[in-house]
Amino acid sequence: MPKKKIAHIITQLELGGAQKTTLLILKYLNTDKYEPHLITSTDGPLADYAYSLPQLKIFNVSSLTSRINPFRDIISFFKILRYLKREKISIVHTHSTKAGIIGRWAGTLAGCQSIFHTVHGWPFYIEANGFFRSILLFFERATSSITERIVVVSNADLQAGLKRVCKDRSKYVKIYYGIESQLFRGKSGTDPQQRTPLFKSLNIDQGRCVVGSIACFKPQKAPQDLIKTASLVIDRDKDTQFLLIGDGALRQGYEDISLSLGLKPQMKFLGWRHDVNALLSVIDILVLTSHWEGMPVVLLEAMASGVPVVATDVGGVSEIVKHGLNGFLEKKGACEDLAGDILTLIKSPGKRREFSDNARRSFLETFDITCMMDGIHRLYEARSEQFS
Q1: What's the rounded mean pLDDT across residues 61-68?
Q2: 176 within 8 A of 372, measured Cβ to Cβ
């Protein structure tokens, strides 16, 4: 039988969970049955990785950006529509809000057989003015009516979707994120001598406790809470080293704040890195201060590496981090509590080892790449069947 053509649609290829997951699906897709296509913008830190994937056909739409711009969005819509028609795409699978709305309507008008959409955190989680959130919610509800299956990555997103977007439970399928666990071995799976050059390149004493953050500097990730939490920890334990991995429009401002507070020696801003798996082998504790989330991939990477997590209890985070078992959870904005948890783990290497063992064990049960791809292939093959 001829292969079915499937197009995944996403905006810029940033180093985010939605982008990483989209590329992993395309990497592990069964190419005996499907011909993979990717429709995306022209730039992003993961662009080179996308072009390295064999058999993947990429169509660049330069106007397809994350920011809402009616003129550019209309251009993107017609470019995507023409491509879907020209290539005779059978299945459209969109990711995140902007690409999801444009891509699903283009797929419908192009006559594609199936339209799927993955929610990587609902748009109404955004802390914005009520009118803007209402507009996003209106479009999400309208577009759900033309979507065959809505893929959610957490129970939290499922319940929020049922309550606010589409009440038809049969439309939803839950497929947890999966990552390539063999790439994330952490301290226990990495030769100490292999870590020494990394410590030297980062100019960090191997005897210091290293707290890491891997997140974009944007409002969702609450960098103001990250800096405040770090300052509280450093004030009580000046030997602690923070590694802030990520970039974004807000980075320079918070880097300047850390400098003005005299925190720069203990806080290293590394920007985007492509060696996150190696960096996790030198990190003792991972902190996430987000105000909203879907299912943060960085927490899965930390768990696979056996790194204890201190995070805010938002979205699907509690489905990954079990308070007191493999990490600590606190309310968003609770910087004092987050700092207290970090200090508890700094002072207790035994507790860190216990959390590390539990993190690795719980990850392998649910979040390996094979689990995710089983769900994705069932989605494409079963189509109209009821998913649980």
Answers
A1: 90
A2: yes
